[in-house]
Amino acid sequence: MSNEEKQSLTNVTLGENVRLAGFINLYGCDVGDNSGIGAFVEVQKNARIGKNVKISSHSFVCEGVSIEDDVFIGHNVSFINDKHPRATANGRPQIEEDWVCIPTLVKKGASIGTSSTILCGVTIGENAIVGAGSVVTEDVPANTVVAGIPARFIRKVDEGSETDRSALKPVPFLDLKAQYQTIKSEIKPAINRVLDNCSYVLGPEVAAFEKEFAAYQDAAFGVAVNSGTSALHLALLSAGIGPGDEVITVPFTFVATVAAIVYTGARPVFVDVDPQTLTMDIDRIEASITSRTKCILPVHIYGQSAEMDPIMEIARRHGLIVIEDACQAHGAEYHGRRVGSIGDMGCFSFYPGKNLGAYGEGGIVTTNDSAHDKNIRMLRDWGAESKYNHILKGYNYRMEGMQGAVLQVKLRHLEKWTEARRSLAALYHKLLAGTGAKIPHELPANRHVYHVYAIRVARRDALQRALAEKGVHTGIHYPVPVHLQPAYADLGYKPGDFPHSEAAANEVLSLPLYAELHTAQLEYVCHNIQEILENGTLG
User: pLDDT tens across 276-294, in order?
Assistant: First the structure.
């Protein structure tokens, strides 16, 4: 089928050298000279498109929209021409006469970023820039950059002085309020369902989420619990880990990884991390295996999978269980396989700041083993097989119904959020190249989901202070490896035992990264890092 056969053009006036992709629907509109229309674009009647305009794929230009010359429209941009859209009017399906078309104007030279929504009645001024993912609710002045939901002023176009950049401050490390605004209309009905059915603990919302998340991670089963720590604890118990056993893991992780091992009565045995990926160094595992070793617990740190094939091969050769700590790695992949489905069990956290975060605490264990699924379901609910019939010594680790409802909503957006994170991480890579900061290393066969974007610099604490003075909020994940934490001094490790973990703890600095982070904010972060490192202004 030719491109022409894939195009629906009715009563369209086309200028010279207009480029039209396939699967488009244009009717009753005008398109000026040298303009381009991408695939899966619809342009409705009475819309006017000027010269040298580029409209990228999957965008919707409705009736009443006028686009002047030299305008760029990104992918999946939607224009709205009705203030109060309804399906019905006066008890019958709405017809054209029931609504008023409110015109919108995009002036010469403006640019509108991917996945933006332009509400009716606004004017986007000459050479203005609308950041990706924005919702424009009011006029955008000429020569300004706006972004956000709703779109707000960021800076003037092409003005890069410190005075202009100050408008970007502060740059938060995480902005859950911005995320909530994008899904607010979905969250409230979900919470109301829980209030209406009064299933406050476990219940249908949790059960539905378990199935959806397990499928998302390519696992047969998912058992929702009240935290990622509980997920790790119960996975270890289901694997039969207990007093006298040893579990191999890494010291460069959040303390919960190790705490869960200690909860079972087993002993954590550390191996150092690979200096590039900061995941478990596979060449150090076998030297740490003893007759008491029962389990290998790799950590998919920052959202990147550990090297699972060699780990699984070592484990199978020695008859060991593998439990994946995937608490930071929702949707991460290793050689095309989702983490949490590769080992015997995978453990995830839904702490609010995670890539998939609850509105409170939450966690889940994924597995392809029905016996583990059955055991963990009992262990999370006081060891009960049925009400008041307690088979195991269990715990009160149940997920709340409200969290199950919220997580169902957020899971539907996770892929979009993950791709946004990956795109922003790629921009960080580009802008930080040559600054002296060491950027994260992503293995070629991995899909890194960038829960944390951690650079490494020699004078980390000084850089963090200097960035704070510029209004850039950062984090450190993690400043002290677990083997040097006072709480775990009884394990007998000392400084120097794990040099790569200790070096990372002294150097890593986590930069702002979340789907709602504006490109201009990221550029501001990178500009300040470059300026601070190049000018030698670290105090």
Answer: 999 999 999 999 999 999 9
